[in-house]
Design a protein that fits this description.
Strand content: 15-25%
Largest sheet: 8 strands, mixed
Helix content: 40-55%
Radius of gyration: 27 Å
Distance between the termini: 45 Å
Number of helices: 18
Number of strands: 17
């Protein structure tokens, strides 16, 4: 009840915020029309030739009438059979859900849910923890990774007797299921990682590596990041083989061993192996990697959950800013010391982040989920052609949503000084940017230097990764993911989003035409904090739905013909 009440309050707050912003926005548009009409009157009075085309400019009243007429018509038609938007109509979704529920494999997996839960529980017990390679105190115990390999082999005998298994760089794995029509059809790639982040046992209510099952939940590090996908893929493939399924298209499953520390020795080595197999000449049609979830209450004012299929991934750039001045005694301080100069520079960056934009992925996302909004918010979201600037300003106003529309700026470290009575010579600060797909690394660096506007501040790029290419939200693989979401979660809207973290998919840009990042479990907004958090857990029902989703997706993808000789449909510009 409390959650519903809070959701209602957030929805009303969002609607009031939109209405407050809407009035000045429309007045500005109307003012622009009025100024154009004034120009028309001026040129007409002076008998200018420009009058011939300016005379069609509307006055203030007619401009508002035209604008409101077009927007209200689009609002009225959105979500109907005449203009259904990017989601299936509710009746169609309910039909898909009923069809999935009636499939023998869905019933079979649901009946075996306790068995599936115990197999995931067993995988959680292996402490496949990754530590930074530069960490001198903690080192990964790769014997645990080898134990997990052996566990998978023992628990899923059909997968290991049917698929070709390749060990990459000792600890990563690639499985290949040869398709019966592999000569004519393109293969695709499924991906997950076997490693997990550290967990301090004293902070948890359960042993993070016990895999205990209690109150309908499986507890442990990796239950939602990402062993549930590793074991889920195995369960789906084992069931497919057992049912007599034989794919027409070749399927590759890759399991990396060091994603949590960048994937340099796991995913990067797997990608190199694929390149050696000739995948650069004819890449995978698509790749499916980890990403965001089906999340309740994620977008204020939106009715029902939203499935965020990440069609792109933010880049990153870490900058070192430094200032060097003459040191001195604190009794005779300089007018501006190194700390003050650098603090001012970093404050400017924090107060003036890069401007946002609704073009590209953000507009695509809100355009897709527009039919899930109600009241004034649905009117605005149904008419992004008119209100995209307004929506962008609202999203920029909150740090939780600003990341969707712009490159973010985070001040992360600051070092200077060594004694209370000495003005230090040097001050050093670190700034971390998560670079939006609309921006480039060069543009971000140039913008920072312009904002700081101080030659005494030196900039150094410590590390950088460009944003990923943007995959198509009209591609058949995306549509299949959307279909599977609607089948499993009929009340959910589906939208192409931006993954704000960095996954292992960054290593596969050269071997996959399209990359989609999605984790098909349903969480509340609060439960997303379990990701890398304390008491990470997954409900047994959620896990079984993951297995059903994967199996359904593989079956649907195989039913779609994808000719080998067709030209590669590279990422959208």
């Amino acid at each position: 009840m409390c959650n519903k009440h809070e959701e209602f309050k957030n929805s009303k707050k969002a609607e009031k915020g939109l209405l407050r912003s809407l009035v000045p926005y429309l007045l500005k548009l109307g003012l622009g029309a009025g100024l154009l009409k004034a120009a028309l009157n001026y040129f007409r009075a002076n008998r200018s030739l420009l009058y011939r085309w300016l005379r069609w400019v509307p006055n203030f009243n007619s401009f508002l009438a035209y604008t409101f007429g077009a927007s209200i018509l689009k609002f009225a038609l959105t979500g109907t059979k005449y203009l259904p938007g990017e989601q299936l109509l509710p009746k169609s979704r309910q039909g898909l859900a009923a069809a999935l529920a009636s499939k023998p494999f869905a019933r079979r997996l649901l009946q075996r849910k306790e068995e599936l839960a115990h197999r995931l529980s067993g995988a959680i017990r292996f402490k496949t923890v990754s530590y930074d390679y530069e960490d001198t105190e903690n080192k990964a115990d790769y014997r645990e990774m080898q134990k997990l390999h052996a566990y998978l082999q023992a628990q899923f005998p059909l997968v290991h007797s049917t698929l070709q298994r390749h060990v990459i760089n000792t600890h990563s794995l690639v499985y290949h299921w040869e398709g019966s029509d592999s000569e004519n059809q393109r293969p695709y790639l499924l991906y997950a990682h076997m490693d997990v982040v550290p967990a301090i046992q004293e902070e948890w209510s359960e042993d993070p590596f016990s895999g205990s099952i209690k109150d309908g939940y499986i507890f442990g590090r990796g239950t939602i990041d990402l062993k549930h996908m590793v074991v889920g893929y195995m369960e789906a493939l084992e069931d497919l083989i057992q049912s007599g399924f034989r794919p027409k298209r070749s399927i590759y499953l890759a399991l990396g061993h060091d994603e949590e520390v960048g994937g340099r020795h796991g995913a990067a080595a797997i990608a190199d192996w694929f390149l050696d197999q000739g995948m650069s000449e004819e890449p995978f049609e698509f790749m499916w990697d980890e990403g965001l979830f089906v999340i309740d209450n994620i977008v204020p004012g939106h009715d029902g959950p939203v499935a965020l299929i990440c069609a792109s991934e933010k880049g990153s750039m870490t900058l070192k800013l430094s200032v060097t001045t003459e040191p001195g005694h604190s009794s005779v301080p300089p007018k501006e010391g190194s700390i003050g100069i650098l603090a001012s520079a970093m404050s400017k960056l924090e107060k003036h982040p890069m401007p946002g934009s609704m073009s590209g992925v953000a507009e695509d996302f809100f355009g897709h989920i527009a039919t899930g909004f109600g009241g004034p918010m649905r009117f605005v979201m149904s008419n992004l052609w008119l209100f995209s600037g307004l929506v962008c300003r609202i999203l920029e106003g909150k740090h939780q949503t600003a990341t969707m529309v712009r490159t973010t700026t985070a001040l992360t470290t600051f070092h200077s000084g060594y004694k209370a009575n000495v003005c230090p010579a040097e001050a050093v600060g670190i700034v971390n940017h998560r670079v939006h797909p609309n921006d480039t690394l060069d543009e971000v660096l140039k913008y920072d230097k312009k904002i700081v506007d101080d030659s005494r501040v030196k900039f150094e790029v410590i590390s950088s990764l460009p944003p990923s290419p943007v995959s198509s939200s009209t591609h058949p693989a995306y549509k299949t993911l959307q279909h599977c979401v609607h089948s499993q979660y009929p009340t959910a809207s589906v939208g192409p989003s931006v993954f704000v973290a960095n996954s292992d998919s960054k290593h596969f840009w050269d071997v996959a035409d399209q990359i989609y990042r999605f984790n098909p479990i349903r969480l509340t907004n609060t439960e997303t904090k379990l990701f890398h958090g304390i008491d990470e857990k997954i409900s047994v029902d959620n896990y079984v739905r993951t297995v059903v989703f994967i199996r359904h997706f593989i079956e649907m993808t195989d039913a779609r013909f994808c000719m080998r000789t067709e030209p590669p449909s590279k990422y959208n510009e």
